[in-house]
Amino acid sequence: MAFMGDRATLLETGRFVQRHQEHAVDTVDTAEDETEARHRRAAENGDTESMSVLGSLLLRRGDLDGAEPHLRAATADGDRAAANNLGVLLHQRGYADEAAGWWRIAAVAGSAAAAHALGRHYRERGDEPAAEYWLRQSAEQGHALGAYALADLLEHRSDVGAERWLRAAAEQGHREAAYRLARTLDRRAAAEARTGVAAAGMAGSGVDGGSGTGAVRGRGHLDFDTGTRLSGAGAVAGAVAGNGTGTGLGPSGTRYPGYGWTGDGSGTGTGPVAGESGGTGPSTGTRRAPVDTEPVGAGPGPGTGTRHTVGSGSRRTGAGQHSTGTRHAGTGAGTVPPAVEAEQWYRQAAARGHRRAALHLGAILEERGELKEAGRWYLTSAKDGEARAACALGFLLRDAGDEESAAVWWLRAAQDGDGNAANALGALHAARGEQQTAERWYRAALDAGDVNGAYNLGLLCAAQGRTAQADQWYRRAAYAGHREAANALAVLLLQGGDAAGAEPWFSKAAEAGSVDAAFNLGILYAGRDDDRTAFVWYERAAAAGHTEAALQVGIALLRDGEEQDAERHLRCAAGSGSAEAAFRLATLLDRRQPPPGAPALGETLDEKTECEEWYERAAEQGHRRAQVRVGMLAAGRGDLEGAARWYREAAEAGSRNGAFNLGLLLAREGSEPEAALWWSRAAHAGHGRAALRLALLAARHGELDEGERWCARAVELGPAEVAERAARLREALHQELTA
């Protein structure tokens, strides 16, 4: 017959069973039947061990009535495994106290599994000293479940000895122990990293910026224990000195309002200038750290782990009477960095089917750039039902350009209650212009307990001009502690003219760690001429990596004559993409250079200096003054074609100096009509020298009235030297006209 569908897929899902597999199952069943029959015959002849084995087989099958007489008979003959399993049977029937009595008998006789079950029994009744005693007895005999349960008890009491027993259980293959040990090491690594950052911060406040070009902006970065791409919202009126734009950008670089935000209220990104119609769109680039929300216990029910034993909970891990006592090679504490060891234990737990370990391992690999393997672990975890892994897999696919597959996994995660995935779906629909569907998913995220849903709803409403609703959603998120929502609310209030109402929200957001809010406070205080307080907030934002704040700190330090510190901040801002910072840094370096001498005959031109490289970087980003300066430097090297190109770019962007210099080059090449057009544009933009050139050109062509008019314009525009020459020329033209 023909099979429908792909054979490999059917095999993977188990819907197609090969004949050899059927034969293997039949063989196993036959072997078990033969084993049971053999032990039953031996038990009928009074063999104690066979009675114990037969009882355990029946107990595993669920035949409690059939198992009990055999277990009681073996127990009466002193078989400790039977006593332990009899306790399990009675516990399953609800006779906990009688079960504990048999577990005590087996534990005293040396059964590690019974000691574990007895310790669990006492812990459930709140008798922690007795629980610790018996669990320790079990753990010290090498019982993995006992070691894990003891670690859980000690960890509950914040006892430092918990890690030792977690490690002991993990080394014997206990996957939950391996996972929790990895989490412990992960937290230690994070704490050490924070300590290192704090120490570095005390040593010096480096600036490592994001993007920005002159206005108060929302900024963004990535976080998933790796980073979150967040949109900040908004700006303060009165942009700082710079050559900036403030259009909100999604992570793909596309400009549109309402691009979904799925972060945790921290970080930096891009946002709109105050006075623009839309708010920043939320970003879909979030990879939030996998945070464990499921309670982690010591395992369901008392396990046993003895030979031929049946437990009612965690699967057997090989400890007990038949354990070899061999420990897997573990990584001792202190021999490797905690983060490295954590990854090893995540990998061990994930390989044993622990879905949250697979999620964390995927996050580690993704952060390291090993995306293919990260995707495999995310997929494994997602297939096992981990919604956060499905969400993370969606982001991985989205970043790879497969938006449709990403949406499938986000939908799966969102339907399982993952708010982050619901936010991502909302962002996806907002980017497509499907505002109603986006709003529905943002509301679903909020219903799932993700406060980012409220923030995203605020951004969506702000982009649509629904200011009152945006205010309500921002407030809801801000009151829940969302710092970027507090910043966005402050921006909204400021745009509405309520500066007094905005300031407390800026302060609240800044104190909670919003870099944008700190920068916005700097703008606010600078607008009040409180430069000292403004500098404090600028410096704070700059230390956290805000590019525009670093630029403002550099400008302030230059004004105070502190060139070395100013240069450091300008370099950081310029290196992070600020064209204005690159131009100011180039200007600073330019001033330090000795004036160039005349080149000797046959002397080769010098290579580009560092200041020229910074000028060019700013020019390539569209900075008009930098473009003019690069053109001048090119002309000085004799590269007239390059000079004309830069002058033209600056002139077409509205630079009057660029238009004037381009006119000079064209006039030198004999293109006076085109030169006159560019001088005319420069003169109308307020360039006095261009007006004087036009006056001279008109006089040379005999257009005396036109020349006199341009002289008057040059006198009006200045500077003084130009005004003086223009006045003399105007007088001469006037005399010529009246002669």
Automatic annotation (TrEMBL):
Residues 312-323 have a biased composition (Polar residues). Signal peptide: none annotated. InterPro entries: Sel1-like, Sel1_AlgK, TPR-like_helical_dom_sf. Residues 22-47, 242-336 are annotated as: Disordered. Residues 242-251, 260-282 have a biased composition (Gly residues). This is Sel1 repeat family protein. It comes from Streptomyces flavidovirens.
